[in-house]
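User: Can you predict the 3D structure for this chain?
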Amino acid sequence: MSSKVTPYKDSDLNKKQQVTQMFDNISKEYDGLNRVISFGIDIKWRNKVVDLVSKTQPERILDIATGTGDLAISLAKTNAKEIIGLDISDGMLEVGRKKIKHKELDNLIKMVIGDSESLPFDDNSFDAITVAFGVRNFETLEKGLAEIFRVLKPNGIFVILETSVPTKTPYKQGYKFYSKYILPAIGKLFSKDRSAYTYLSESASVFPYGEVLNNILRKIGFINVQDKPQTFGVATIYSASKA
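Assistant: Here is the predicted structure, written as structure tokens:
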């Protein structure tokens, strides 16, 4: 299990509370800064998640840690009848609601404030569940994954898009330099919350990825677990299902 990294080193709040505060703080600048930091490649990764989910023809989708709703909006392409985006940050959700209304998708996508480790849904509620760049922010990873397993329908699909660490030279060295120095510098330059992008970098560097995360998913009870590294391994798409 990864060591616990929090956004604000001197805060008395727990990780969940700090993450909520952090995303509330950066919600208005998040989308633009995220495009800069990822060079826009995150859009391509999200489209691959949508393709995986589309193949299962889901009617009801839950997007956890939905943030400003980028993935939830993209999932509208799946022809699902209902998409719920859940997040603990109302600041992020409010940005997402405006985007959804602008795209006239508010009849399809509902943005809900909630805790990923205590989901407000019945067992076996969703045909597909997605999390993009959110599982590393869980207070307790296994608790969050167990909740996802609980509300996923049998034969449903669960897809994670998350940062990972390249293992091959020279990508490994380049990634470490970029994440340690460049990413926090960009965040400090353009963000009012100077700690946020340092946290996002640090949390990515210690989060379990590849076969380690695969085994955690299997321990929870997921089957058909697969991982597909993206762009030299700087991100990974994981897919799993429920018997």
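The two ends are 25 Å apart (CA to CA). The beta strands are 60-64, 82-87, 109-113, 126-132, 152-163, 223-230, 235-241.
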